[in-house]
Specification:
It is a single chain. The protein is an alpha/beta fold and about 350 residues long. About 45% of the residues lie in helices and about 15% in strands. The strands form two sheets. An eight-stranded mixed beta sheet has the order 5-2-1-6-7-8-11-12, with helices on both faces. A four-stranded mixed beta sheet has the order 4-3-10-9, with helices on both faces. Helix 8 packs across helix 11, helix 8 packs across helix 13 and helix 13 packs across helix 14.
Length: about 350
């Protein structure tokens, strides 16, 4: 068992935009942090200049280092924060697991439903979910740019948050405000609906969220994507939670009448207005999938829209727009197309033809 009289030891797996920002903030408060990457360029940059934080209050450099792989003899760790991209989450969990204390926990920061995947490896009692409601990017190795404000929602797969969840939540308050949930899957599915829309469409367009959300037809695509996700969540028996306490996905999903309407309605106008407000708050957000493709890495599309399509299929539900988006993002990853608004315009034309 872990000695609870000492400060918890924290392992951060992955030092991209999210992982590097979290590691730097924890180091600032004197936490016992071991940050790990597989990218020697990131490790070398931080060794030279520390973690360079931007876009979050005063620009500053935080002293520290990043290891290439878990150092021999490190640990045992009380928490392993999994901050890789979703395609690498299971490998990161398997790597970290032998270095955890007997009562240590794996904490999932990824979008999608990664807690369920990690629980298959470690057991649900060793998994904590940390839903990230803020954005960060790494424009160059070691430089961490906070692109959107926000905090975390912490929870367990089954039941209310326990002492371990509360402990990691207190630590993460160094990064942003922390809320707790007894309905982690409901929170995850709501966030999945949003990411399946804004992250995937941002990837296809090759743009940040701000310019896209100003265009009505792209907002309509977001609504169509989220409507399909909400239908699948209902079939899964998931009770959706409001995102950041305000965005009600059950309300924002289009009704049959709204999907058929050829002109605007008051309810549609309200839903578009909410998307504009959210988009402006996160206007600097740039899709991490787009960054992954640019770096020659596999995109997380199968963990977002692809997850929706796979689960929809098991319930006999059709999700044509999400399926088209999966194919389009993989075409980008394979070099068969280039990001542009033209890709979104084609998707929009398809959806309007389907509802005509």
């Amino acid at each position: 068992m872990t000695d609870r009289n000492r400060e918890p030891r924290i392992l951060v797996m992955g030092c991209g935009g999210i992982g590097g920002t979290v590691a730097a903030h924890l180091l600032e408060i004197g936490a016992d942090v071991t940050a790990v990457t597989t990218n020697t360029g990131i490790a070398d940059a931080v060794a030279r200049r520390g973690f360079r934080l931007r876009g979050d209050g005063d620009a500053r450099d935080v002293p520290g280092r990043i290891h290439v792989g878990i150092p021999p003899g490190a640990g045992p760790f009380d928490f392993a924060l999994l901050a890789t991209q979703p395609p690498q989450v299971e490998a990161a969990a398997a790597t970290a697991l032998p270095h955890l204390a007997d009562d240590g926990a794996l904490v999932c920061f990824q979008n999608g439903l990664c807690e369920l995947r990690v629980a298959e490896l470690a057991g649900p009692d060793r998994v904590i979910g940390a839903v990230v409601a803020w954005g960060a990017s790494m424009p160059e190795p070691g430089l961490y740019d906070r692109t959107a404000p926000g905090g975390f929602t912490i929870g367990r797969l089954d039941g209310p948050p326990d002492d371990r969840a509360l402990e990691i939540g207190r630590l993460l308050e160094a990064v942003g405000p922390v809320a707790y949930t007894s309905n982690l899957l409901g929170t995850r599915w709501s966030k999945l609906a949003i990411n399946a829309a804004i992250s995937s469409l941002g990837t296809l367009a090759g743009e940040r969220l701000g310019p896209l959300v100003r265009v009505r037809r792209y907002r309509r695509l977001c609504l169509e994507v989220m409507t399909e996700v909400v239908a699948v969540a209902a079939a899964e028996g998931v009770s959706l939670e409001k995102v950041s306490g305000t965005i009600d996905l059950d309300w924002i999903a289009l009704t049959d009448a709204e999907r058929r309407a050829r002109t605007g309605t008051p309810s549609l106008a309200a839903k578009h207005a909410l998307l504009v407000a959210v988009g402006m708050r996160y206007r600097r957000l740039r899709s991490s999938m787009l960054s992954a493709i640019e770096r020659g890495r596999p995109p997380a599309i199968d963990f977002l829209n692809g997850e929706v399509v796979a689960r929809a299929r098991s319930h006999g539900i059709d999700t044509p727009l999400n399926a088209r988006i999966v194919d389009a993002v993989w075409a980008l990853a394979r070099g068969q197309a280039r990001p542009s608004r033209t890709l979104l315009d084609r998707l929009y034309a398809d959806t309007r033809a389907a509802t005509a």
